[in-house]
Amino acid sequence: MKKSTKTLLLTYLAASTAGVLLHFLHQWFPNPIFALISPVRESVWEHVKLLYFPMLGAALFLGRGKGGLGRAPWLLSQIAVCAVMLGSGYLYHVVFRGEAMAVDLLLFFVPLALGFLLPRALWPLCEWPGTERWAWVLSSLLGALIVCFTFFPPKAALFADLSEGLRTFLTIPV
Predict the structure, then answer these.
(1) pLDDT(70) > 70
(2) Could you give the CA distance from residue 81 to residue 113 in angstroms, rounded to a whole number?
(3) DSSP string, 31-44
């Protein structure tokens, strides 16, 4: 799992740029296809798309030609950083009711950077039989949830449109 620092840095910059552009894609060109890969609402859940799709691209690019040992750690990293973004975004926006743009940017760039560091630590796990299959299954499941909740978001704080000025702690189901 040796990758040059230059390749990782350039891929991180490309993924960062893709994530930033994805944030505005549906706003610029509203249609159902772009709604699948770009946030439709300003909810914590919708912003997972900004990490999921660039990390999927990085996994396919950086893990090419190495079978399961190449892509599996990247897919597991993708799932982990999406969970980190959901958890930290929920805490910041819903629990603490934060609204600072600088923190929002950190909630994107830091997990994405973590997503590029984590595969090296996850690589030994990927030598276990079946890990590649489970990495694909979990990544696909997350992708399916993203698609499903894009069009049918549950009534929960994680899916609430935070741009509407909701007092989000009141929308948390009891």
Answers:
(1) yes
(2) 9
(3) SHHHHHHS-SSS-T
pLDDT digits (tens, 9 = 90+) for 72-90: 999 999 999 999 999 999 9
What is the pLDDT averaged over residues 10-37? Answer: 95
Among residues 92, 90, 85, the alpha carbon closest in space to that of 172 is found at: 90
Q: What is each CA distance from 57 to 16, 25, 53, 168, in whole angstroms?
A: 11, 17, 6, 33
How far, in Å, CA of 101 to CA of 113, rounded? Answer: 18
pLDDT at 172 over 60: no
Residue 134 class from Cβ within 10 Å (0-12 exposed, 13-18 middle, 19+ buried)?
Answer: middle
- The pLDDT mean for the chain works out to 89
Start-to-end CA distance of the chain, whole Å, equals 46
Q: List alpha helices for 90-130, DSSP H.
A: 101-122
Q: Which of 43, 68, 54, 46 is nearest to 20 (CA)?
A: 54
Give me 169's structure tokens.
Answer: 């702690």
